[in-house]
Amino acid sequence: MGRAPCCDKANVKKGPWSPDEDALLRSYVEKHGTGGNWITLPQKIGTVLSRYLLRFHIELLAPTLDFCSVPRKVGLKRCGKSCRLRWLNYLRPDIKHGGFSEEEDNLICSLYISIGSRWSIIAAHLPGRTDNDIKNYWNTKLKKKLFGKQRTDRRQCRSIGSAKQESDRFDYGGLGIVIDGVGQNDFWTSTSIRELHGEVGERSSSDGVSHQSPLVAPSSPLLQPLREDSASLASSSLPGVSTDLDELFQFDLVKLEGLDFFNGFEGLKNSNEVSPLVCPSVVQAHNEVLQW
DNA sequence: AAAACCTTCAACCGCGTAGTA
DNA sequence: ATACTACGCGGTTGAAGGTTT
After folding, report:
1. How many angstroms separate the CA of A228 from the C1' of C14?
2. How distant is C1' of B9 from CA of A18, in Å?
C-alpha cells in the first residue's frame, strides 16, 4: 500500500502552466492568500471564479447570450501541490529572475561545500532565489565549473511559460476572459444556476473564501537568522547530532580539487574549518552549526 | 538541411516531518 | 498513543531549444 495521492490524479492537469493559469493563481493568491491550505486552493479559485462569471453573465450578458453557454466548472484543474510550487518558484512577486552574479556563485559554492545540498537553506541566503532555481543552477553550471568541466557559454533564450501548450479553452463571451479546461458538459443549466444561488445564499456569511485575510507575505526565510538554519540542520533527522555534524563537515579533499578559482578555498583543502576568506555568512553558518 | 546530441530548467514524485483530531 | 493530512524538501524527469556533426 502506497501513500494516498494528494489529489485526484485523473482530473488534474499536468505539465507546463499556461499564462492564463498563472494569472488565475496569481490574482487569487494576491487577493485572498493561500488560506493556509494549498490542497483546497484550486477548488476555492474555481468557486470564486464561478460566482464571478455567473454574476457577470446574469447582469451583463443575459439579454444576449444563451445560459447554456456559460461555463459551469471553471478554475484551476491543478493539484494543490503544483499550485504551491508554481507560486513559490515562479509567481511570487519577490522572485529574482535571470542570471546569477559572481557573488551569488561564490556564496552558493561555499554554502554547498559547507552544508551540502540543503538547497532551501542555501536559498535562504540568496534574496529572491528559490531552492529549485539554485539546485538547477548548481546541477547545470556550478558543479561543472567547480569540478573542472568546461562550461559552454550559452544564451538563455528559453521562452517563459508554454505558448505551445494546447488546452480546451473558452473565451467567455468573446470578451477576452479565457478559461482553460472547459469541457463539453461543463456549462450551466437553469437547475445548476439555482443550486449555486442557493449554495451562495446559505454560505454568504461563513464563506471562508471571501473573508480570508489578504495575503500576508510569508516571513521571508531570506531574512531569518542563521541560527535557525543551524537549529534546523541539527534537528533535521539527525539522531546523533554531534556525530552527524561531524560527518556533515567532513570535506572530501578529492572533490575540492579544482577549487582554486574560488576565493578562500585554499583553507578548506587543509582543514575542516571554513576559511574566513570565504563569504562571511558561510563562516557564520558553519560556526553556528558547530556551536549548536 | 537535418539528424544526433547536449543543455537547461520547469515540473513532478515520493519521502520525512509537523500539526491536529 | 495513534492515525491522518498537508507541507516542505531534495532528487529526478522530460520537453524544449540550442549546438554540433
Report:
1. 36
2. 16
Residues 81-110 of A with CB under 7 A from strand C: 81, 84-85
Residues in chain A: 292
The span from the CA of A250 to the CA of A24, in Å, is: 47
In the block, cell 556550478 appears at A142
Nucleic strand B under 7 Å from the C-beta of A235:
yes
Q: Of A128-142, A163-177, A188-202, A216-230, which one has max mean pLDDT?
A: A128-142
**Cα separation of A41 and A51, whole Å?**
16
When pLDDT is averaged across residues A46-68 and rounded to a whole number, the result is: 61
Q: Which residue has the cell 466548472?
A: A73
CA–CA separation, A77 and A167 (whole Å): 11
Rounded, the Å distance between the CA of A237 and C1' of C2 is 21
Distance A154 CA to B2 C1' (A): 22
